[in-house]
UniProtKB/TrEMBL annotation:
Reaction(s) the record says it catalyses: 2 (2E,6E,10E)-geranylgeranyl diphosphate = 15-cis-phytoene + 2 diphosphate
Gene3D superfamilies referenced in this protein's UniProt entry, alphabetically: Farnesyl Diphosphate Synthase (1.10.600.10)
Recorded superkingdom: Eukaryota
Name of the protein in its database record: 15-cis-phytoene synthase
Organism for this UniProt entry: Quercus suber (Cork oak)
Length: 205
């Protein structure tokens, strides 16, 4: 990990693909979900966000309120997409930091990454996955930012201290910067914005 050029993360490629609506991998035809099923899938995501575990931790409570308040400023479609992304990120984090973290193995993370690819290929495993599948067909989300977050979970299982700032910066990108990459396509950039796309992504990272 030490000495890996940040250019090798291919962040710029992710930005370019998302900006040109070329991000999503998998079949071109959108999977057909029954409207009631999809509504229930997003409702479960919303409930998941509003009933996050470990509410006694102060920063989690504050983040929950920030997320709730922030999504109120979005359109309904953007709200739902944000819930779906958040739920996937939270479930990913719970693999290594949740109550069952003691059972974590590389095989579990490999299986989760395979499941992620199924989501992008239009084959969700459960209702929460279905909400994300619908989201990635509506917004130009690049699968690599999701894979990179899983890579951050692999780093969590391997070490808890970093010997230099470069290693720490890389870890921060994997577990936090990736969320910024996922969020920008959903939040959108106003066509009349005087700020460049690159500047907005830099702020998100």
């Amino acid at each position: 990990m030490n000495g890996i050029p940040f250019a090798d993360l291919q962040v710029q490629e992710i930005i370019e693909r998302q900006s040109k609506n070329l991000a999503r991998e998998g079949p071109r035809e959108k999977p057909q979900f029954h409207p009631k099923f999809l509504a229930e899938a997003y409702e479960r995501c919303r409930t998941f966000v509003q009933n996050m575990p470990r509410p006694s931790i102060q920063f989690v409570v504050k983040f929950k309120h920030c997320l709730d308040a922030g999504t109120l400023l979005m359109t309904k479609e953007r709200q739902k997409a944000t819930w779906a992304i958040y739920v996937w990120c939270r479930r990913t984090d719970e693999l290594v930091n949740g109550p069952n973290a003691g059972h974590m193995s590389s095989a579990v993370l490999n299986g989760w990454e395979d499941r992620l690819q199924d989501i992008f290929n239009g084959r969700p495993y459960d209702m929460l996955d279905a909400a994300l599948t619908d989201t990635v067909f509506k917004f130009p989300l690049d699968v690599k930012s999701f894979r990179d977050m899983i890579e951050g979970m692999r780093m969590d299982t391997g070490k808890c201290r970093y010997k230099n700032f470069q290693e720490l910066y890389l870890y921060c990108y994997y577990v936090a910067g990736t969320v910024g990459l996922m969020s920008v396509p959903v939040m959108g950039i106003a066509p009349e914005s005087p700020v460049s796309t690159q500047t907005i992504y830099n702020a998100a990272l």
